[in-house]
Predict the 3D structure of the following.
Amino acid sequence: MKKLALIFALIFIVPMLCGFAAAPTTGGKSAGKAYPYLIDNFEDGTYTKDPEWFVFDNLIPTIVKNAKLQDGEPSVIPNLGIYSLNMKGMAKSWYVGGMGSMLGVDATPYTSFEIDIYGMGEGSGKLKIELYDDDNGNTDVEVDKSWKAIYDDVWSSEIDVNWKGWKHVSIPMSKFKNDGRGDFKWNPNLANGSGGLVKIQLICVAVTETGEINYNIDNLEFGLK
Ligand SMILES: [Ca+2]
Ligand SMILES: [Ca+2]
Ligand SMILES: [Ca+2]
Ligand SMILES: [Ca+2]
């Protein structure tokens, strides 16, 4: 019996622990090489788990019901579900704050960043996407005093939210610019202990020096062609 139990453990439990079993899922969609990788769709009604987002500075994120946003007009965006995340906050010197999540995924198969954004019209604010590509193989991001990554690449792109209602935004990975100091190559893989795409951050910036940002985000994904 002991032998059987051991064989069972080797066949079923060890692969599970190593993460070879079911593909990780967020909100019901599979995350695997043949599918887009769903970062978050907020359908669990929280931003504090699956994945856990940490919030910094003056950003106030709130899970809201999409039905309340739309003033009754039909949505042109599919799969918004019940919830999205409202991002709000007052700027000091244009900067409001942001949120981030540790991902640790191999993002090399993906060719774009996809997001649905509900704008409140002209001047809703800017949203900067930062993708941290671990290059010194420690699944961590070391920063200097000004929070600039020292050993890893940080690929970023900015969206000016200047529309009213829902809009799908797709940004090819090739349009992201590197603000970090890694190996200056897009290689968020898990080779040699690397955390791959180790972290994502969303940075909120107002269009006026002391203004407010206010928009909703939903269906954050890494896309495939
Ligand atoms: Ca949603
Ligand atoms: Ca890398
Ligand atoms: Ca690192
Ligand atoms: Ca790199």
Remarks:
- The pocket of calcium ion (ligand 4) is lined by residues 133, 135, 153, 182-183, 185, 187 (CB under 6 Å).
- The CA atoms of residues 26 and 50 lie 6 Å apart.
- The chain has one domain: 26-223.
